[in-house]
């Protein structure tokens, strides 16, 4: 395996350090960073070899049970790179950062988002969960603060009072979600990764990410489901 033999350089180390401090990075940022790291440390730079550069880092992260993973933003379809901890499930990792009732609120929010039609949960519905917490009741004001923190820590993202899972959360928790929500969690029919915000075929029930829907139907005069060929009744974004 040649990838294993590839040496970590100071350019790789710097890239990793910056990504660690961000937790997640948009693709264009990661490409800029790749270039900058190579220039600073005078390491050979190939503009189209970011993924090779990352896999060199990954081969050295393996013994530490960590990995840089590439994923996609469900909103705009852009690539993102996130540093993922493989040693523990994400929920246990979160347990060191949040109290038990904060975690319970997160889990219940995740239920709402994943079981929803469109991959969003309203703040009203989330705040109504506070009475149902088994660990310890939480006041609505307090819950609003906790939701803010989940957004700052990139577990949730929020738009006009609607919450969904942050790209980082999806990249980190894909396996956890697929195994814990077997009936509800869908993979996108086009890119085969987990789809939280998606459109669903009314006839056969497959789901597609909005950016994948956009791309897939771009060339078609009449949108038909890639699975069952029935007319696609959702509005194309």
State the separation between the terminal residues, measured CA to CA.
43 Å
CATH superfamily of the largest domain: Winged helix-like DNA-binding domain superfamily/Winged helix DNA-binding domain
Write down the overall mean pLDDT.
91
Strand count, sense and barrel status of the largest sheet are: 3 strands, antiparallel
Pfam families: SMC_Nse1 (PF07574), zf-RING-like (PF08746)
Catalytic activity: S-ubiquitinyl-[E2 ubiquitin-conjugating enzyme]-L-cysteine + [acceptor protein]-L-lysine = [E2 ubiquitin-conjugating enzyme]-L-cysteine + N(6)-ubiquitinyl-[acceptor protein]-L-lysine
EC number: 2.3.2.27
Subcellular location: Chromosome, Telomere; Nucleus
Task: Put the structure in a nutshell.
This protein is α+β, with helices and mostly antiparallel strands. It has helices spanning 2-5, 10-22, 27-40, 50-61, 90-95, 100-115, 123-127, 140-152, 167-180, 210-218; strands spanning 24-26, 66-72, 79-85, 121-122, 156-159, 162-165, 186-187, 194-195, 198-200, 207-209. Component of the Smc5-Smc6 complex.
Could you describe the 3D structure shown?
It is built from ten helices and ten strands. By secondary structure, it is α+β, with helices and mostly antiparallel strands. The chain has three domains: 55 residues, no CATH class; 89 residues, Arc Repressor Mutant, subunit A (Orthogonal Bundle); 51 residues, 2-Layer Sandwich (Herpes Virus-1), CATH 3.30.40.10. The strands form four sheets. A three-stranded antiparallel sheet has the order 1-3-2. A three-stranded antiparallel sheet has the order 4-6-5. Helix 2 packs antiparallel against helix 3. The longest helix has 16 residues. It is globular. The N and C termini lie far apart (43 Å).
